[in-house]
Design a protein that fits this description.
heterodimer, A: alpha/beta, 2 domains, four-stranded antiparallel beta sheet, 12 helices, 12 strands, B: about 325 residues, alpha/beta, 11 helices, binds adenosine-5'-diphosphate, binds magnesium ion
């Protein structure tokens, strides 16, 4: 598959005044043309920071290093103008809370219109017609009338659809959806995930879907990257990740999900919480919570190594299994 | 079936409406919103009733009615066989020791300026329970029961993770030895991995203290994990009620079917055909006539538009309010 976006050795350091804290420790993610990649991990793992950093959205207190390429073109350190031409136009991002991402004092139609003007130079009647088509496309009934609504007049699910319509305004090559359904009800979540699936199928758009819930990304990703404490700890094709997880953290996330049928079993919770970036344990950051920890785990960070075709995991047990 | 134990909590035809201003136009006009409309259920000591449904269906209002924080506009709540007294009265305050509540947002429930151990002890002081010298020891016992050590006593809320804060809220709710805990979306704001911790903790506490739970959630798979019985609400009414496993494997009401099929499933082999509902639930002010679900229902027939179905038993003992599920729909499909 042709590579669209590649993050290589991405690190992020936050200047918090009295010191500098590293939140990302060298992240590699590749997204192919038309591919959907899931990014999973508990809150605080670094999922949002990864993509905000890649798109140059972290602000002056963050120092980003490594490489981010789009169709081979380097984005890190690129001039502001070049980045602006990419954001929204070639890579669009939507977030968990649509209400706070929309401007409360402007009508929906005007906000989509602005995106259309910025990215595609449309205005006037052409912009209005296209805004209507986009609302229609994301499944908003009575699109013409909705254009004159304000965000507060719409439900959470409708606002998320509006956000998706704005993201589509630039006809992007890739959509990064950061927990797009976490704040929504189950039935509305199903609607939005269904919409994302449909858009991807129709348009050949690449997608990165971020969630703390493996169930949410399972149905919408070709491949899944699992993130923990600022590192990718496992990466595999979706079916393979569920059938044969190799990192104990991935197994832990799977075991924590309640089943829908079969006998009820006690959930296996992962004890403790994600360490803060400023208080990482030595060696493997997951070691203090790991049910199968070994003494060696505290001595060095395990590298992400091959665990089969297209499958990589960062756990000393993987290397042992390969060596044996 | 065995004779059921005497119920701890009974809701009988419970209703609550609010006067609201309908938006639209320059001034809007007054309207009545039926937040809860004829809800009945029993809860036996030591058991869990799960209450599920989308935002706005009346779950929190039901919880507040049960606790007597809100007075019903119709029907009644009985606790241990007696009506719940009027809020604010001495009798009600006495009763509130036995029924406690846990909310979704633990940070909002805690005071940021006070160490969490003090906050766990606080109900003892408010109710003048226990000798002053014993209170600290009791708080430490509860911290231990919720899986937090004594070292947490002096910490402040912002120094804790979301899951740890919810444990503190639980410890505080349990310190007066309640028999009923009303949990309103207690884990909805937590990561999946931390949700599992709190679910296990709730199950352990139930086994240890014989607590009954009214457990509110919009997540059916979480509710199955914790409940002995589940009630599904839609626009203020219970539309299906019964055994959690039956509800998930063979939902009778089309709304329950939609909720079940909306659950994302990790394993591809276990995926079922998805039934995607159109649109959002309607505003309860504009409650559709007949069965309130009929405009979104893929199985609706003409009768559903005019005739409100009552909640009654299906042959397998489970309750459902649906003409179609009861085979009483006639043959005419609804032409939209
Ligand atoms: N602007 C910032 N300054 C300092 N630390 C930050 C900043 N943004 C994020 N972080 C920290 O980086 C870590 C990763 O955050 P984030 O990427 O938001 O996690 P996730 O999206 O996986 O929940 C967290 O510990 C968070 O507190
Ligand atoms: N004090 C109130 N005044 C007016 N309307 C209310 C009030 N409390 C709740 N409602 C309305 O009642 C309905 C049910 O609300 P609620 O019980 O909070 O639902 P849920 O907890 O299931 O999301 C909603 O439409 C809500 O807006
Ligand atoms: Mg995030
Ligand atoms: Mg509620």
């Amino acid at each position: 598959m042709e590579t669209l976006v590649a993050l290589r050795g991405l690190t992020v350091d936050f200047d918090v005044g009295h010191r500098v804290i590293r939140a990302l420790h060298g992240v590699d993610i590749t997204v192919g043309k038309g591919e959907a990649v899931g990014l999973v991990g508990e809150s605080g793992s670094g999922k949002s920071v990864t993509w905000l950093a890649a798109l140059g959205l972290l602000g002056p207190r963050a120092r980003v290093r490594g490489s981010v390429t789009l169709a081979g073109q380097e984005l890190l350190g690129a001039p502001a103008r070049a980045l602006e031409a990419v954001r929204g136009r070639r890579i669009a991002m939507i977030f968990q809370d649509p209400a706070s991402a929309l401007n409360p004092v402007h009508r929906i139609g005007r906000q989509i219109g602005e995106a259309l003007g910025l990215h595609r130079g449309l205005d006037g009647g052409a912009a209005r017609a296209e805004a209507r088509r986009l609302l229609d496309r994301v499944g908003i009934a009575d699109a013409a009338r909705r254009l004159t609504d304000y965000p507060h007049q719409l439900s959470g699910g409708m606002n998320q659809r509006v956000m998706i319509a704005m993201a589509l305004a630039g006809e992007p090559d890739m959509l990064v959806a950061d927990e797009p359904t976490t704040a929504l009800d189950a039935t509305i979540q199903a609607q939005i995930l269904d919409l994302l699936r449909e858009l991807r199928r129709d348009g050949g758009m690449s997608m990165v879907l971020i969630s703390h819930d493996l169930g949410v990304v399972a149905e919408n990703s070709d491949r899944i990257c699992v993130m923990y404490a600022g590192r990718i700890v496992e990466e595999a094709p979706t079916a393979e990740l569920f059938a044969a997880p190799r990192h104990p953290y991935t197994s832990g996330l799977l075991a924590a999900l309640p089943d829908l049928d079969g006998p009820r079993r006690r959930l296996v919770a992962i004890p403790g919480t994600v360490p803060e970036p400023a208080h990482l344990p030595p060696g493997c950051a997951f070691a203090p919570r790991c049910p199968v920890v070994l003494p060696v785990c505290a001595t060095a960070v395990p590298p992400l190594e091959s665990a089969g075709p297209g499958h990589r995991a960062a756990c000393v047990r993987v290397r042992r299994a390969v060596a044996a | 079936m065995n004779a059921p134990a005497a119920p701890l909590l009974q809701a009988r035809d419970l209703s609550r409406s609010f006067r609201v201003r309908r938006s639209g136009g320059m001034f809007g006009h007054a309207a009545v919103l039926h937040a809860v409309d004829g809800v009945s259920f029993d809860l036996t000591p030591g058991r869990t009733l799960g209450l599920v449904g989308e935002s706005g269906c009346g779950k929190t209002t039901t919880a507040r009615l049960v606790l007597g924080i809100l007075t019903p506009t119709g029907g009644e709540v009985r606790f241990e066989g007696a009506p719940v007294p009027a809020p604010g009265t001495r009798a009600w305050r006495q009763l509130r020791r036995r029924m406690q509540m846990v909310f979704q947002d633990p940070l909002g429930a805690l005071d940021r300026r006070i160490p969490v151990g003090q906050q766990v002890m606080e109900p003892l002081a408010i109710h003048g329970a226990g000798a002053r010298g014993d209170r600290r020891g009791r708080a430490l016992e509860l911290l231990d029961a919720v899986g937090l050590g004594a070292s947490f006593f002096a910490r402040y809320p912002h120094e804790l993770s979301g899951g740890q804060r919810q444990r503190i809220v639980l410890a505080r709710a349990l310190i007066l030895d309640p028999t009923l805990l009303v949990c309103d979306e207690p884990i909805s704001a937590l990561d999946v991995s931390i949700q599992a911790q709190v679910i296990n903790l709730l199950l352990d506490l139930q086994a240890k203290f014989g607590l009954a739970y009214l457990f509110i959630s919009h997540d059916l798979k979480v509710v199955r994990q914790i409940s002995h019985e589940v009630a599904v609400m839609y626009l203020g009414k219970i539309v299906e009620q019964g055994d959690p496993d039956r509800l998930l494997t063979d939902p009778a009401h089309p709304y329950t079917q939609a909720l079940v099929s909306a659950i994302p499933v990790a394993a591809a082999a276990r995926r079922r055909p998805r039934l995607i509902l159109k649109g959002d639930p309607p505003n309860p002010v504009d409650r559709p006539a007949g069965c309130a679900f009929h405009p979104r229902c893929p199985a609706a027939v003409d009768r559903c538009r005019v005739d409100t179905p009552v909640l009654k038993p299906l042959p397998d003992g489970r309750l459902a309010a649906c003409h179609v599920a009861h085979g009483e729909a006639g043959s005419a499909r609804l032409v939209a």
